[in-house]
């Protein structure tokens, strides 16, 4: 197991200084991320639990289950991984002090894989659920039951957990990553049995989930806009549909932007490393890290992982809390300058149509 800053403290420490400065941050950074993530996801879970028990929200329960599962998954990932990172930073970023046996590294890598891939697949499932609720409301009402949603979520968790344990069975490897504060899949190291398959599958499934989410959300937006136009031509009081469409479009676009910004860089970098057979091993050697280009590669990979971790913090706000607190106000401001809704009263409450009632938590 690689030990940053451990055995060759003298001459090599000075050689590593520049690279470590690029990749090191204060312990306040992971600590702040952990606190923010725990508070946001815990608040989202409380709101979902309160809404789930109401009889008026019976048709929303599949969607509430998805949101609650996403928040619970993100919360679990924060609670299991962040304390380890904080402990490593407090020990001077020397992983061997926290994990002398190396077993904690395998556990950390498993958590990174499990709580990284699950939210992507759950987000894809939620995008499909929303698309079905909007495009086929009658089929959705008769077929989309709570039991079916629970089954899908259970399959996601069990399937990803089974996949994440492959390195423990010898297919792939979890290794300490630059700058020595976290463990993850050893992308690009083809000499390890099954590692190329494992890393490629992780990145490919993640990108596929992003594409499914993107496509389904675009279809949902297109359907809402078309239905809004149809109701505008047929019904006089169309401002409710216009406002609902605007709110939903802002939320879906926010979801797509956050997912792609947080996960896109990491998944693309992993595939690039696999195709070029490069790994973060060169980041661990002081004689190599002096190269400017290699420093950039190491720090790009670290930044990509931090962006992916940021997704756990942003998820509850994008899916639930932002809509509850801010989204309505944003739409009121947008409606004030929109020619489509000049005559509408911004303060009127919204009464949702039955076919999209389940899209709002």
TrEMBL record:
<protein>
    <recommendedName>
        <fullName>Prostaglandin E2 receptor EP3 subtype</fullName>
    </recommendedName>
</protein>
<dbReference type="InterPro" id="IPR000276">
    <property type="entry name" value="GPCR_Rhodpsn"/>
</dbReference>
<feature type="domain" description="G-protein coupled receptors family 1 profile">
    <location>
        <begin position="40"/>
        <end position="319"/>
    </location>
</feature>
<keyword id="KW-0297">G-protein coupled receptor</keyword>
<dbReference type="InterPro" id="IPR000265">
    <property type="entry name" value="Prostglndn_EP3_rcpt"/>
</dbReference>
<dbReference type="InterPro" id="IPR017452">
    <property type="entry name" value="GPCR_Rhodpsn_7TM"/>
</dbReference>
<dbReference type="InterPro" id="IPR001244">
    <property type="entry name" value="Prostglndn_DP_rcpt"/>
</dbReference>
<dbReference type="GO" id="GO:0060455">
    <property type="term" value="P:negative regulation of gastric acid secretion"/>
</dbReference>
<keyword id="KW-0472">Membrane</keyword>
<feature type="transmembrane region" description="Helical">
    <location>
        <begin position="106"/>
        <end position="128"/>
    </location>
</feature>
<dbReference type="GO" id="GO:0006954">
    <property type="term" value="P:inflammatory response"/>
</dbReference>
<keyword id="KW-0807">Transducer</keyword>
<keyword id="KW-1133">Transmembrane helix</keyword>
<dbReference type="GO" id="GO:0005886">
    <property type="term" value="C:plasma membrane"/>
</dbReference>
<dbReference type="GO" id="GO:0007204">
    <property type="term" value="P:positive regulation of cytosolic calcium ion concentration"/>
</dbReference>
<feature type="transmembrane region" description="Helical">
    <location>
        <begin position="152"/>
        <end position="176"/>
    </location>
</feature>
<keyword id="KW-0325">Glycoprotein</keyword>
<feature type="transmembrane region" description="Helical">
    <location>
        <begin position="249"/>
        <end position="271"/>
    </location>
</feature>
<dbReference type="GO" id="GO:0004957">
    <property type="term" value="F:prostaglandin E receptor activity"/>
</dbReference>
<keyword id="KW-1003">Cell membrane</keyword>
<comment type="subunit">
    <text>Interacts (via C-terminus) with MKLN1.</text>
</comment>
<feature type="transmembrane region" description="Helical">
    <location>
        <begin position="27"/>
        <end position="50"/>
    </location>
</feature>
<feature type="transmembrane region" description="Helical">
    <location>
        <begin position="196"/>
        <end position="221"/>
    </location>
</feature>
<feature type="transmembrane region" description="Helical">
    <location>
        <begin position="62"/>
        <end position="86"/>
    </location>
</feature>
<keyword id="KW-0675">Receptor</keyword>
<dbReference type="GO" id="GO:0007189">
    <property type="term" value="P:adenylate cyclase-activating G protein-coupled receptor signaling pathway"/>
</dbReference>
<keyword id="KW-0812">Transmembrane</keyword>
<dbReference type="GO" id="GO:0007200">
    <property type="term" value="P:phospholipase C-activating G protein-coupled receptor signaling pathway"/>
</dbReference>
<dbReference type="GO" id="GO:0014827">
    <property type="term" value="P:intestine smooth muscle contraction"/>
</dbReference>
<dbReference type="InterPro" id="IPR008365">
    <property type="entry name" value="Prostanoid_rcpt"/>
</dbReference>
<dbReference type="Pfam" id="PF00001">
    <property type="entry name" value="7tm_1"/>
</dbReference>
């Amino acid at each position: 197991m690689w030990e940053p800053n451990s055995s060759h403290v003298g001459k090599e420490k000075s050689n590593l200084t520049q690279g470590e400065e690029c990749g090191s941050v204060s312990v306040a950074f992971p600590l702040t991320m952990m606190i923010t993530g725990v508070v946001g996801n815990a608040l989202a879970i409380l709101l979902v639990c309160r809404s789930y028990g109401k009889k008026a929200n019976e048709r929303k329960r599949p969607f509430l289950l998805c949101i609650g599962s996403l928040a619970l998954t993100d919360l679990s990932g924060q609670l299991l991984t962040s304390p380890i990172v904080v402990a490593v930073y407090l020990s001077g970023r020397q992983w061997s002090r926290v994990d002398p046996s190396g077993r904690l590294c395998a556990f950390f890598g498993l958590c990174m894989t499990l709580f990284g891939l699950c939210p992507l697949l759950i987000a894809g499932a939620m995008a499909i659920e929303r698309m079905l609720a909007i495009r086929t409301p009658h089929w959705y009402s008769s077929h989309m039951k709570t039991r079916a949603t629970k089954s899908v979520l259970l399959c996601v968790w069990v399937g990803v957990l089974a996949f994440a344990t492959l390195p423990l069975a010898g297919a792939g490897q979890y290794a300490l990553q630059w700058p020595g504060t976290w463990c993850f899949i050893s992308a690009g190291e083809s000499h390890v049995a099954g590692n190329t398959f494992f890393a490629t599958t992780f990145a490919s499934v993640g990108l596929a989930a992003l594409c499914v989410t993107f496509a389904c959300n675009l279809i949902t937006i297109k359907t809402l806009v078309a239905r809004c136009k149809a109701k505008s031509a047929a019904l006089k009081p169309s401002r409710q549909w216009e406002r609902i469409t605007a709110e939903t479009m802002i939320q879906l676009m926010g979801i797509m932007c956050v997912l792609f910004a947080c996960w896109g860089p990491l998944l693309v970098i992993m595939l690039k490393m696999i195709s070029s057979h490069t790994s973060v091993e060169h980041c661990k050697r002081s004689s190599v890290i002096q190269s400017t280009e290699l420093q950039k590669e190491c720090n790009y990979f670290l930044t990509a992982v931090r962006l992916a971790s940021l997704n756990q913090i942003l998820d509850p706000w994008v899916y639930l809390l932002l809509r509850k607190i801010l989204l309505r106000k944003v739409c009121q401001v947008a409606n004030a300058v929109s020619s489509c809704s000049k005559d509408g009263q911004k303060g009127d409450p919204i009464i949702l149509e039955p076919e999209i009632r389940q899209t709002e938590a």
